[in-house]
Specification:
Blueprint: H1 12-26, H2 30-41, H3 48-60, H4 64-77, H5 82-94, H6 98-111, H7 116-123, H8 135-144, H9 151-165, H10 169-185, H11 191-204, H12 207-211, E1 222-227, H13 233-241, E2 246-248, H14 254-263, H15 269-276, H16 281-289, E3 299-302, H17 311-317, E4 322-327, H18 330-338, H19 352-372, E5 378-382, H20 383-388, H21 390-400, H22 447-455
Parallel strand pairs: 1-3, 1-4, 2-3, 4-5
């Protein structure tokens, strides 16, 4: 279900209210959007489909507790509606209620065994064991598929995840490659387009741009955590979000939307980048600050990995914002992205050549930001250092945010705040090292990626062994 679709049984007043909610969201009017949502959700006897629409909009705003309440009401009204059960499981996952989410997905899979997304989401909720896994059932379900069935993609990713949990790395990669190849065939994507955009960003937001004075908005709260997906950004978000003076908005499109609205109509990415260098930065910063949660706090985390593309704008529009960049060993970073089904996001992640080339472009852009961004606002952290020295690195993170130390940051697994990222299940656990050097378990299969990176001068760690 997507926002804006007609809702069965919805009266004209509710339809108009939904349209107003969507307009508020598109205009960046977060407070008005939430108020209208609350008003519509508060009525009694709302139809199940309308409740699901409301839950979807709450989810887009990162309000997962409110979304869960809407989905629970929808399921109570229509307990056999599998889409309602699936959506409810998604909200429960965000809230860390993983056992409840798994039970709902068990029911969806039982009733609709062809639903690949339900299989995949269930596989990610916990580490599978020899006594408790779904590998034989997944293999049988894949064998039943007709050629070209879109559910092949998610089923293959689920099978790869469960086989990896069982230490069956060769079989895991076979399933993973099948799923990734099937996903890539459905995409019209050229990695060179993204690489050209990154080169243009660096050329536009250059040393001369930073030598000029930019009057931005003075809001002191924004704290951006950036990097590639699956690089440790969610872990840092949970650590800092455990601090009493910090709140997190999770991943958000608000910065990107504010930029697009401020830039106006652009003919393409290149035109958008050029327009961005001429913006009213105080207005842009104010527009973004206006989307921040109203709760009083010293820092608000925006943990959107792709915001690494916007750091020049962040520096100009929000001069009091702090930026944290998460780095990860490139082979592990690329493997972690390759084995994650991102749905609509990160189209470069389904092909090893695309992945390697995108990583090189990202690395070059981050080297540029390293040269031009104010050093006191920009901190880089290595995922491996955080895993090996949790307290020392956590203290650096808190100090960079300009805050006094809070012991709760060492117990991030108890952070009750919702999260709906690919790491939603992992961050409910204490810190672990089993993902460090995991690429070594797939060394033969990833040889082309390693060759591409090393040919570009990237050093690949030699001392590590497969942790399995």
């Amino acid at each position: 279900m997507h926002a804006g679709e007609p809702v069965e049984g919805m009266d004209a007043a509710a339809a108009d209210a939904l349209r107003r909610i969507d307009l508020h969201h598109q205009s960046g009017e977060r407070a008005a959007c939430i108020a209208a949502l609350h008003a519509l959700a508060g009525g009694a006897d709302r139809p199940s489909r309308l409740l699901q629409e409301l839950g979807l909009r709450y989810t887009l705003l990162g309000l997962h507790a409110e979304a869960e309440r809407c989905y629970a009401r929808a399921v109570a009204a229509r307990p056999d509606d599998l889409s309602g059960l699936y959506n409810h499981a998604t909200a429960l996952t965000a809230l860390g209620r993983l056992d409840e989410a798994e039970a709902l997905l068990d029911h969806v899979v039982e009733r609709a065994p062809g639903d690949g997304d339900a299989w995949y989401n269930r596989a990610t909720l916990r580490r599978q064991t020899p006594r408790h896994n779904h590998v034989p059932q997944l293999e049988r379900q894949l064998a039943r598929l007709a050629p070209g069935d879109v559910n092949e993609i998610a089923l293959c990713y689920a099978l790869a995840k469960e086989r990896e949990d069982l230490g069956e790395h060769a079989g895991a990669f076979t399933a993973l490659r099948r799923g990734a190849d099937a996903r890539r065939r459905r995409l019209q994507y050229r990695v060179e387009d993204d690489l050209e955009t990154m080169r243009l960003i660096a050329a536009t937001f250059d040393a001369q741009f930073f030598a000029r004075t930019h009057a931005g908005d003075g809001d002191t709260r924004p704290l951006f955590v950036v990097g590639l997906p699956r690089s440790g950004t969610t872990l840092v978000d949970r650590i800092l979000g455990s601090h009493a003076a910090v709140t997190s908005r999770g991943e958000s499109t608000d910065l990107a939307q504010a930029v697009v609205r401020a830039a106006g109509h652009a003919t393409g990415k290149a035109d958008l980048v050029r327009r961005c260098a001429q913006l009213d930065f105080a207005a842009l910063g104010g527009a973004y600050a206006g989307t921040l949660p109203a709760r009083a706090c010293a820092r608000v985390i925006d943990k959107t990995p792709g915001n690494f593309l916007y750091l020049g704008l962040v520096a100009a529009a929000l001069p009091q914002a702090r930026i944290i960049h998460l780095r990860r060993q490139p082979m592990d970073a690329c493997l972690a992205m390759y084995k994650t089904l991102f749905r609509m996001a990160y189209p470069f992640s389904y092909d090893l050549d695309d992945l390697g080339r995108y990583w090189l472009g990202y690395d070059a852009l981050m080297a540029h930001w390293r040269r031009v961004l104010p050093a006191d606002r920009f901190l880089e952290i290595d995922y491996e250092a955080l895993v090996d020295n949790q307290e020392a690195v956590s203290r650096r993170l808190v100090a960079h945010a300009g805050l006094a130390w809070d012991e709760a940051c060492l117990r991030f697994e108890h952070n009750p705040q919702p999260t709906l990222t690919a790491s939603a299940a992992q961050v409910r656990q204490p810190i672990y090292r089993s993902s460090v050097a995991l690429w070594r378990c797939y060394e033969r299969e990833l040889a082309p990626l390693r060759q591409l990176l090393e040919a570009a001068g990237v050093r690949v760690e030699e001392s590590m062994e497969c942790p399995a």
